[in-house]
Amino acid sequence: MTERPVLVVLFDGVQSLDVTGPVEVFSGAGYAAGDPAAYPLHTASLDGKPVRTTSGLTLTPDGALADAPRPHTLLVPGGEGADHPDPGVIDWLRENAPRAERLFSVCTGALLLAEAGLLDGRRATTHWAACDGFARAYPRVTVDPDPIFIRDGGVATSAGVTAGIDLALALVEEDHGRDIALTVARHLVVFLRRPGNQAQFSAQLSAQTARREPLREVQRWIAEHPDGDLSVPALAARARLSPRHFARAFRAETGVTPGRYTERVRLEHARRLLEETADGVEEISRAAGYGTPEAMRRAFVRALGIPAAEYRLRFRPPAR
């Protein structure tokens, strides 16, 4: 079996789950594939000394970055230490990271890659709370705050903490197939696997709550009636506003158009039914307001890159 060495960069202020989550995935994948050495793991700090994580845990690396073996996959975690990185770490990344076949950051580890110039001209993501500052600080990077991870050639960036597990599972599936990745996901009691372009937040969290009560009531009604008439005229009548005034006010107060908000709510409702019930696709398409399975299939492909039927196969837990 092909070995794919993984090197994890450690530094003071690293987020422990950014390290241990993906490491557990790669380690578990080796055992699931019948070859514990499928992903030889090596950790390294700049000087080889132990580092203290943001939670207070101390991690002892295998050695110094200068002595680390050349990796197939280079993992750069995030954490508070990424906000003010050691220049030595940045210099090492700038010189050595391009030699890895895959470059993989978790959370604000993307800031280290950007500081080293490794994300120039690429799409990238990071934890939602850091995206605005990320975009301002690194204008050569196209920052997308929505997806949980983004693949751009051999460079992959992921959102906060658990998104690193999703990305690691995606890489394992790419290397060894869905069955091995599914075995690891089941062992870790996580779904295999959230698509990279799945939003970091639910529809209700990703949009702001309207200030005015009529618009807040419309938001609640949409969430409770995804199969209802959610056209702008119908929603405007519920808010006792003209369609034009309603559309303007809704976008101004929530940050999204009524149509975009409705799309997110319906998609989220359909996903939940596919994951948690045994209802048929046709029944779910009606309950989520799509009307037909084909309309729901198109919506899933457009938003998540996979049809609804495949989404159910991937993300509904196996029957016990």
Automatic annotation (TrEMBL):
UniProt keyword Transcription regulation present: yes
Name of the protein this chain belongs to: GlxA family transcriptional regulator
Lineage: superkingdom: Bacteria
Pfam short name (any one): HTH_18
Keyword field contains Magnesium: no
Domain named HTH araC/xylS-type: residues: 216-314
Record GO terms (molecular function): DNA-binding transcription factor activity; sequence-specific DNA binding
UniProt keyword annotations, A-Z: Transcription, Transcription regulation
PANTHER family: ARAC-FAMILY TRANSCRIPTIONAL REGULATOR (PTHR43130), HTH-TYPE TRANSCRIPTIONAL REGULATOR RV1931C (PTHR43130:SF3)
InterPro entries assigned: Class_I_gatase-like (IPR029062), DJ-1/PfpI (IPR002818), Homeodomain-like_sf (IPR009057), HTH_AraC (IPR018060), INH-QAR (IPR052158)
